[in-house]
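Hi R.,

Here are the chain sequences for the assembly we discussed:
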Amino acid sequence: MPKEQDKNRWDCGAGWHDILDRLTADIKAVITAITPRVKVDKVFKILQVKEKFGCLRYYYYLDLNEAHRNKIYALVRAAEKESSQTCETCGKPGKVHNDLSWVKTLCDVHRTELDIKYIIE
Ligand SMILES: [Zn+2]
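And here is the predicted structure of the full complex:
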């Protein structure tokens, strides 16, 4: 599980937290397998997590050689792709909506809720 200090850098909806939990655990497992004698915190740090154009953006510091870095890149790319198919609000299957004044990935329920909210306001 990520530390609380990691989660404080997560600037996105709770629907993506499961993806981030898995991604961070997977990255730490790969690093531990590659460099069992080095503390993970010494070579890997999450700098920022945010939503951009309906997709997760995961920014991190990584001090590994190129061959090993590519394994981490692949994990991050897969998680970012998964986020573009996952509702940022609830974590259910969703899709990117760009018919709003901004771009968001949402399930049908949360997309409809946005419409209702705008009618009321
Ligand atoms: Zn949803």
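The mean pLDDT is 90. The longest strand covers residues 44-52.

Let me know if anything looks off.

Best,
T.
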